[in-house]
Amino acid sequence: MTQASDTRYMALALSLGRRGQGRTWPNPAVGCVIVSGGRIVGRGWTQQGGVPHAEPMALAQAGSAAHGADVFVTLEPCAHHGRTPPCAQALIDAGVARVVMAIPDSDPRVDGLGAQMLRDAGIVVETGLLGDQAFADHDGFLRRTVMGRPMVTLKLASSVDGRIATASGESQWITGAQSRRMVHVMRARHDAVMVGGGTARHDDPSLTVRDMGVDYQPTRVVISRRLDLPLMGTLARTAKETPLILCHGKDADKTLQRTWADLGATLLSCRASGTQLDMDDAMAQLGGHGLTRVFCEGGSALAATLIENDLVDRLITFTAGMTIGAEGLPNMGALGLAHLQEARRFTLSGTQMIGPDTVTTWVR
Ligand code: AOF
Ligand code: ZN
C-alpha cells in the first residue's frame, strides 16, 4: 500500500471520528477504517455516550475480511477492560496485519499499552500519520486526560468594531441567519454550551441546538457565583429535559441551591476569588464531570475571565459588516492590560465568508 493511499484512509477515519464529536464524552470521538486488498471493508466511529468504541464497529462490518487487513485508527486502540473489552485484543483476535494509528491515547489506562499489545502479537504498528489533525480533533479528550479540564472554544459575535449591543441594550440580529445556523452546528459538535450568569439573566437563552435534525443536545453550563438566575426562565423550565449544570460559589444561597437541584440542574460548587468564581476550579470540575469540549458563548465578563486565566484554546469570531460605536457594549470585559506585551495572542487558523458576515478561527 502506498503512503498516499494510507493518508487517504486516515483522512477518512478522521472524518468518521468527527461524526461523534459532541456526543461521545467522556470518551474521545475516534474513527476507524479497515482496508483489505485495496478495498474498504469496515468503517466505524465511537458511538453516543462513548460506547461501543470505533474499532469493534469497523470489525463487525469487516467480518472475516479483517483477517490480514490494514487498520487506520485516529487514536491508539485501548488496552483496558472498561465499559468494553480492549479494542487492541479485538484487533488481535480478528487477525489484522497492520495498525496505523494517528496518535497515542493519553488515558493512563492505555498510554502505549495498546500499541505494545498489538506489537507483542506480531502486528505491524505505525504511529503519527496525520497526527496534527488527530491532535486537533481529539484536543478536548487529550486536555481532559492530561490537564484535567475540557478544551474551551470561545465564540465572539460582534459588529466590525467589536460591539455586541447598543448603549440601550439592543442586541438581536447583529450577525445574519447563516451565522446563527453555523453557531448551532458548532454547538452540536461540542459537549456543552456555556454562558455567564449575566447572559442567562439578560437573554433568557435556551442554549439548545435547533432545526439541525440532531437527536441529542449538548449539556448547558451556566457560571453564576451567586445562583441569582431567573427561576421562571427558559433554563429553569427545561432543566429536566436537557441537562443543565450550574457552577456556583460555595457561598451561594442554600435555598437557591436546593431550588435549582429540585428543578433538575446539576450543581457544581466551586471556589471563588474576590467577586468572581475561580474558573480554574470550575473548569476542573467540568472536566471531572466528563466534559471534553466546551463552547462558550459569552457574555463579555465571562469571556474576559476565561482569557485572563488562559482558558481559551480556540477563539471563533463572527463579524457583521456594521458599526455600533464606543457607547455600545463591547464583546469582552476589561482585561486590565498596561502593555501590549501582556495581551494574549492567538494564531489565525482559518477565515471564511458566511452570508453577509465573516467567521474566523484562532488557536492559542
Ligand atoms: C478506543 N476506541 O473508539 C474510543 C477509545 O470506559 P470505556 O471502556 O469506554 O473506556 C474509555 C477509554 O477508552 C477512553 O478514556 C479512551 O482512553 C478510550 N477510548 N478507545 O480504542 C474508541 N473511544
Ligand atoms: Zn477501545
From TrEMBL:
An individual GO BP term: riboflavin biosynthetic process
PROSITE patterns hit by this protein: CYT_DCMP_DEAMINASES_1 (PS00903), CYT_DCMP_DEAMINASES_2 (PS51747)
Domain CMP/dCMP-type deaminase, first and last residues per copy: 4-125
NCBIfam families to which the protein is assigned, alphabetical: eubact_ribD, ribD_Cterm
Listed GO MF terms: 5-amino-6-(5-phosphoribosylamino)uracil reductase activity; diaminohydroxyphosphoribosylaminopyrimidine deaminase activity; NADP binding; zinc ion binding
Keyword terms of this UniProt record: Hydrolase, Metal-binding, Multifunctional enzyme, NADP, Oxidoreductase, Riboflavin biosynthesis, Zinc
UniProt cofactor note: Binds 1 zinc ion.
Associated pathway: Cofactor biosynthesis; riboflavin biosynthesis; 5-amino-6-(D-ribitylamino)uracil from GTP: step 3/4; Cofactor biosynthesis; riboflavin biosynthesis; 5-amino-6-(D-ribitylamino)uracil from GTP: step 2/4
Residues engaged in binding NADP(+): A157, W173, T199
Role noted for this protein: Converts 2,5-diamino-6-(ribosylamino)-4(3h)-pyrimidinone 5'-phosphate into 5-amino-6-(ribosylamino)-2,4(1h,3h)-pyrimidinedione 5'-phosphate.
Pfam families xrefs: dCMP_cyt_deam_1, RibD_C
Swiss-Prot/TrEMBL cofactor(s): Zn(2+)
SUPFAM superfamilies, sorted: Cytidine deaminase-like, Dihydrofolate reductase-like
Protein name, as recorded: Riboflavin biosynthesis protein RibD
